[in-house]
From TrEMBL:
Residues 3-266 form the GP-PDE domain. InterPro entries: GP_PDE_dom, PLC-like_Pdiesterase_TIM-brl. It holds the Pfam family GDPD. This is Glycerophosphodiester phosphodiesterase family protein. It comes from Rhodococcus antarcticus.
């Protein structure tokens, strides 16, 4: 099975992470899947924000779980990010693929909700979405319940074939993974980990998600997962050397900030 390219928070090396523009760009660049982090607002809405606070990625300050959707929606999530690719090579590659030149942001980049991101994914047949629930959080398991409710609303929580599922749910919390598996047995899940030890016990997960550093230090972790009937998802893969290693070992999914470059390194066949 070929490696799937997952756009980590969208095409986040080029455009502001967790913005609709970053995800649209990733799909144009040939990403097979998108990855997002979700948190609950004070009034119970699922928003795509990685950090506990909005300070790094917006014009505001404060804790996501302590702010209402309306307050979060008033902020700009794009002005902090340089709109140009990191290298001239990346810019030329985009032009070769017929992608528009980057420009200074034409307007404010608004808050992205999980609902809007699911609208985007379901409008692109074959695209997938990896949803990471963040823990520890003040609302505990409510975040998984809300995510599953939203996936049910889109008809994605009970895939006929888990291998072809449009949505996958991930977490560093084994309890969160188990909650999802218990409520939606056919929905693929990924237990994330920053060390091999954190991935020894994988209750209910259909895949493990070690950081790429773990795979470099312990390549056999991929074989062990395969022997257990589990796929491997790894993050964050931004170099040709790491892509080659993942391909050699049989990693199923690689999350990257540079989906265009990774797609190029893998070639048309992936």
């Amino acid at each position: 099975m070929s490696i799937g390219v997952v756009a980590h928070r969208g095409s986040s090396a080029e455009l502001p992470e967790h913005t609709l523009a970053a995800y649209e760009r990733a799909l144009l660049q040939g990403a097979d899947a998108l990855e997002c982090d979700v948190r609950l607002t004070r009034d119970g809405h699922l928003v795509c924000v990685h950090d506990r606070r909005v300070d790094r990625t917006s014009t505001g300050h404060g804790v996501v779980s302590g702010m209402t959707l309306q307050r979060l929606a008033e902020l700009d999530y794009g002005s902090w990010h340089d709109p140009f690719p990191e290298t001239a090579d990346a810019l030329v590659a985009e032009r070769d693929r017929g992608l528009p030149d980057p420009e200074e942001p034409a307007g404010v980049q608004r808050l992205l909700t999980l609902t809007l991101l699911l609208d985007l994914v379901t409008a692109h047949p074959g695209a997938r979405l990896f949803v990471e629930t963040k823990h520890p959080v003040r609302y505990g398991g409510l975040v998984e319940a809300k995510v599953l409710a939203e996936l049910h609303r889109f008809g994605l929580a009970r895939p006929a074939d888990p291998v072809e599922a449009t949505a996958l749910v991930m977490s560093f919390s084994a309890s969160a993974v188990w909650r999802v598996r218990r409520s939606a047995p056919k929905l693929p899940t990924v237990l994330l980990g920053r060390s091999a030890a954190a991935l020894v016990v994988v209750p209910g997960s259909t895949a493990i998600g070690p950081k790429i550093d773990v795979i470099r230090e312990d390549p056999d972790i991929v074989r062990r997962a395969t022997a257990q009937g589990r796929d491997t998802y790894t993050w964050t893969v931004d170099s040709a050397e790491d892509v080659a290693l993942c391909r050699e070992l049989g990693v199923r999914w690689v999350a990257t900030n540079h989906p265009l470059a990774v797609r190029g390194w893998l070639g048309p066949a992936g």
